[in-house]
Give the backbone structure.
Amino acid sequence: MSKVLKAASAVAIAASTLSILANSDAGLAFQQSAQAGLIPVEEAAQSQNTATPVADNQQTNQDTPSQSGGVTFVEGEVVQALPEDYVERNEEELAQEPEAENIAASLRELVSLQNGAAELSEQMRCLAGAVYFESKGEPLLGQLAVAKVVINRAKSSRFPNSYCGVVYQKRQFSFVRGGRMPRIRTGTRAWRNAKAIAQIADQQAWSTPVDNALFFHARRISPRWRLTRVGTVGNHVFYR
């Protein structure tokens, strides 16, 4: 055999060996993908049996997605792009975020965020009226504490089960006379605050130190109730 024929034979044998190795590696990779759950095993087997060989003169592109058994494989890792306004925050910053109920920086800010022009339902007007007449001269937290008493009573089996029922219950709130609420000066800041406080209390959007209170009285008097004292907020003492 001439040197030319020997060289050609060696090249052919090497090409055949490389082709077998390549097919073997591809089959192994495909089988591993199937075992990892990337594609069904049945589809993997079918795709291995029906794989179309690449012609000698056909160029392959690693950046071009390939399809097997109806599943598209893409060379390299697929990563979803982050939004343009994404800002990564560390654990310390996340720990300092306010709780969901206290999303506003202060109760006053939360009051300012309420819709003061919104029409109140009858029940909410009763709640806001109690806040207005019983505590309009109190700090906002004191007004909220009064609203919580009305809400707690409406939830308790010891009292009527509605805000209006609680407010108009006989001999409970001194501002109620003849079963009626006095006229409210609706154009005042005090009424706007009372409406906002009623909404915040009803939504349980802010807490107080006396959230479970059912009774209260002014600090200037001492009725000597045989009740559990919960605490004092503003000029009122609260009991359970």
Residues 3-35 form the longest helix (33 residues).
